[in-house]
Each structure stands twice: as C-alpha cells, then as structure tokens.
C-alpha cells in the first residue's frame, strides 16, 4: 500500500520497541503466524513491572505497543520482573519463553512441560 | 468423570441458554450506527454494562464455550471449567456474532484483544492473565472469594492432575 508509512511489524521491530519503550532487559518475540506478521507471542522482562500485578503489567505493555497491537491479529505476552525471570530460569533450567498458546491432553492449558 | 461431564453439559448449556446472554445484548446493539465504531456510543456502552452485569463471571470470547473459534478463547474456557465455575453464575458472549460488541468491548475495557474476563463486573484480563492466575492460584482464590464455584466441586482442579485414560 503506497500510503502505508508505518514500519512492518516483525519480531525484531517489536523487540526493539519493547526495549526502548519499556526498559525491557530481555525480550523474546515469536511470530506465530508463519511469517505473516499477524500473530505474536512474547516474553518481556522489565524492571518497570516491579510492584505491579499482572493486569497492570499487561496494560503497560498494551500502552507501549498500542499502535502495533491494533494492527496485528493476535498478541500474547508474559510479563516478568528481572527477579521472576531469573528465578524461573533457575527453577526450570531454561525458562519456558513466551506463552505458547496450546492446550495439551493433560488438561493443562499451556504447553509448559517438555 | 462426573465432574467433567457436568462441566461439558452444564457450563455450555448455561452459556447458550436463551434468557440472558447474546440475544438480549444483540438487540441493543442493532440500532447503533455502523460508522460510530471509533467511539463508544451511549447505547453500546449501556449494552455492555448490562452484559458485564449479567452474571458474576462473564467472558467475552470468540465463538461459544462449546465451539470456541480461537485458541485463546478456548484456553480461557478450559481454565474456567477446570476451576469449577458454577455454570449458573457464568455467561459467555460471542463477539463474532456482533461487530459492534467486538469493537465496543475493546474500547469499553481499554483492552485490545479478546477474550476478556470480567468477575463481579470488574475486568480481570485476557487469556495470558487468566492462565497465569490459574497457575499461581490467584484465580482460584478470587473465584472462591466471589463464591462462584460449584458447591462441593473443589476437587475439580485436582481431578485434572489424574492421568487420562
């Protein structure tokens, strides 16, 4: 589209935007749409999340990526403070990364267990 | 097990029961002018107010509890079932049925995605939040506080840890 002045939404773009706008120390963005750039899931680690409950953290992310999220089809995020990220990494021996939307057979709604 | 079949039949049946849910809301949406989709009109806001108040636990989703049309919506319904939410205290609204609801709920909640969960008229979050609260026990606590679980079904979540046959 000739009049589309907005940058393409890619994993890198979102990752960079999160680092800039949210002081994220660690970001993982995964394009779940097979390269279409329509559906993303993410893991965002930022000190900005300290002292905020889950909803507030997500609202922070939504506000930071307001325009981008409005342009894509699906968005999923896991928001952790640097502490939580470190703890989970230690506990799981390599963290689970972005939430992979999936419902496996054991009745768990997240594809957590490898 | 009995618990699962109760969930399957009653939770779904309740959500699609004729009385409260989509019908009452859809008719309120119809008169709203199409080109007002950038602003939340009074009529839309009131209709959503009513939807949010129609039951202690309300989920705006894509599709129905029986046939979710999206993985995130399906995951959310699954969690509510695992938690043992009382079907009589639950209502689901299918945003795919109504374009004005689909757009309006995003502005109403100031939340860009669907599904959206309301408990006791308060916005709780989307799928990610529902799932993480489910995993860390916060959701169970909240649902108990609000007294929306099926009585005598506290074992519902535990049952799921049994191996499936």
UniProtKB/TrEMBL annotation, chain A:
InterPro entries: BOL2, BolA, BolA-like_sf. Gene3D superfamilies: Phosphatidylinositol 3-kinase Catalytic Subunit, Chain A, domain 1 (3.10.20.90). Signal peptide: none annotated. Residues 86-114 are annotated as: Disordered. Belongs to the BolA/IbaG family. This is Bola protein. It comes from Neurospora intermedia. The lineage of its organism: Eukaryota, Fungi, Dikarya, Ascomycota, Pezizomycotina.
TrEMBL record, chain B:
Keywords: 2Fe-2S, Iron, Iron-sulfur, Metal-binding, Redox-active center. GO terms for cellular component: iron-sulfur cluster assembly complex; mitochondrial matrix. One of its GO terms (molecular function) is disulfide oxidoreductase activity. The keyword Acetylation does not apply. Residues 57-124 form the Glutaredoxin domain. GO terms for biological process: [2Fe-2S] cluster assembly; [4Fe-4S] cluster assembly; cellular response to oxidative stress; response to osmotic stress. It comes from the Eukaryota. The keyword Transcription does not apply. PANTHER family: GLUTAREDOXIN FAMILY MEMBER, GLUTAREDOXIN-RELATED PROTEIN 5, MITOCHONDRIAL. This is Monothiol glutaredoxin-5, mitochondrial.
């Amino acid at each position: 589209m000739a009049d589309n002045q907005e940058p393409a939404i890619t994993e890198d773009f979102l990752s960079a935007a999160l680092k800039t706008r949210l002081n994220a120390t660690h970001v993982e963005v995964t394009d779940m749409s097979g390269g279409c750039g329509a559906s993303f899931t993410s893991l965002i680690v930022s000190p900005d999340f300290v002292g905020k409950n889950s909803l507030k953290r997500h609202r922070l992310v939504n506000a930071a990526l307001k325009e981008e999220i409005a342009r894509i089809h699906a968005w999923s995020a896991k928001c952790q403070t640097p502490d939580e990220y470190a703890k989970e990494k230690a506990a799981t021996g390599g963290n689970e990364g972005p939430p992979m939307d999936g419902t496996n057979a054991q009745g768990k709604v997240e594809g957590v267990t490898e | 097990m009995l618990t699962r079949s109760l969930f399957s039949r009653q939770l779904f049946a309740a959500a699609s029961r004729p009385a409260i849910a989509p019908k009452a809301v859809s008719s309120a949406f119809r008169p709203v002018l199409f080109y007002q989709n950038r602003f939340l009109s009074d009529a839309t806001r009131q209709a959503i107010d009513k939807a949010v108040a129609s039951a202690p636990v309300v989920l705006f989703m894509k599709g129905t509890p029986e046939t979710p049309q999206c993985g995130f919506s399906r995951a959310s319904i699954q969690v509510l079932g695992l938690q043992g939410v009382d079907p009589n205290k639950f209502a689901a609204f299918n945003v795919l049925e109504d374009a004005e609801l689909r757009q309006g709920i995003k502005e109403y909640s100031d939340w860009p995605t669907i599904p959206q969960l309301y408990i006791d008229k308060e916005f709780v979050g989307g799928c990610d939040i529902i799932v993480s609260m489910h995993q860390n026990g916060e959701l169970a606590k909240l649902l108990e506080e609000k007294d929306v679980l099926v009585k005598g079904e506290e074992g519902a979540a535990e049952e799921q840890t049994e191996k499936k046959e």
